[in-house]
Amino acid sequence: MEPVVEIGGVAVFQVLSGRDFAKDDGMATQMANYTYVLVPRDDPGNIVLVDPCYDIDGIVSIGKAIGGANAEITQALFTHHHPDHVGGRFGGVQLQGIREVLQLPTAPCCGVGALDLGTTARRCGVDPARITPLHDGDTRALGKHATLVVLHTPGHTEGSICFQLVSTHPDAQEGVSALFTGDTLFIGSCGKWQDTRGLRLLVMSLDRLAALPSNTVVLPGHNYSHVTTSTIGAERETNDIMMQALDAAPKLRKLAEEHPEILSTGGVTCGDAGRRQSSAGDVRELQAYLIHARFANDVADIGDSGATCVVCPSTENKCHI
Questions:
Q1: Do residues 123 and 86 touch, judged by C-beta distance below 8 A?
Q2: What pLDDT digit, counting tens, does each position of 149-169 carry?
Q3: Residue 204 backbone zone (phi > 0: left; psi -120 to 50: alpha; other: beta)
């Protein structure tokens, strides 16, 4: 198995549920989750996992095949609380995940976004004290010349996070990094959202990710594209949803100066019921959500004088933006 990218001496292996592990699991095959196995070249015995789920023994076996028979899982990091990433009850089935990782002999350190920790613990039947809350800007050293940086990217869930793997080597090429995006950003699309506030947050999160260097490698949480990796530069140019977010974000940012509550993470509903999975067809839906932000028109100007703007909190005919 070859790594998909290597940053700062850390080799990143992308393994797919239903193909590389959980091979006889129909749900794992259908969901097409990626788990990432991070192996420092200068310390291959200490392996870090991103979003291990479905088949923990199978993922551990892959880690040992890469890092050596004595390799151990020392950390497991999770991008958000949904059961196809952290495990727990899902569709009448109990999925493996963080609970089984914590039961490994090495008792790895497990971390999840701080605002998703409570839901993760309840869903998986784990003592919350055993999970490390991860906050925006937190860092984790990997080997001698690489660091994982936590980016809080709410919208898909309240506590969704991405992990940016950066090189700390003095000779590192400028701007080169890898970004584990979970379900915040897919190749050519984005994750689902619950409600209007969640959409606003997702817009701002996509805008934040779009500001990363163009050569940042995008490593998504699912195999939903004909390619397995991308770059931030490519997504800025080809991902219709990211382009819509870039158009809306400046107006939302300006609006939030007067109405900071519209970008508060405190109000996001992160339940699973009624959520939408974005796809090529959903681009039109997102465009409809963002039409005010794009054109700064009155609600009446699009033929619905009694509507409430879904981007700003206006209950009047005049949109705030």
A1: yes
A2: 999 999 999 999 999 999 998
A3: alpha
Query: Residue ranges of the alpha helices (H) in the chain?
Result: 26-31, 56-67, 83-86, 98-102, 117-124, 196-210, 232-238, 240-258, 282-289, 291-295
Structure token digits, residue 173: 């090429």
Q: In the chain, count H helices and then E strands.
A: 10, 17
Amino acid at 292: H
CA distances from 105 to 73, 84, 109, 186 (A): 9, 23, 12, 34
- The sign of the CA dihedral 104, 79, 109, 212 is positive
Rounded to the nearest angstrom, the gap between the alpha carbon of residue 196 and the centroid of all alpha carbons in its chain is 19
Task: Work out the burial of residue 220: count CB atoms within 10 Å of its CB; fewer than 13 is exposed, 13-18 middle, 19 or more buried.
Answer: buried
Whole-angstrom distance, CA of residue 227 vs CA of residue 232: 14
- Residue whose entry in the numeric block shows the structure tokens 């100066």: 257
Q: Which H helix or E strand runs over 76?
A: strand 72-78
pLDDT digits (tens, 9 = 90+) for 11-32: 999 999 999 999 999 999 999 9
**Residue indicated by tokens 């701002």:** 204
Integer Cα distance of 184 and 191 in angstroms: 5
Rounded CA-CA distance 321/309 in Å is 10
What is the edge-to-edge ordering of all strands in the sheet holding 230-231? 139-142, 146-152, 161-167, 177-182, 217-220, 230-231
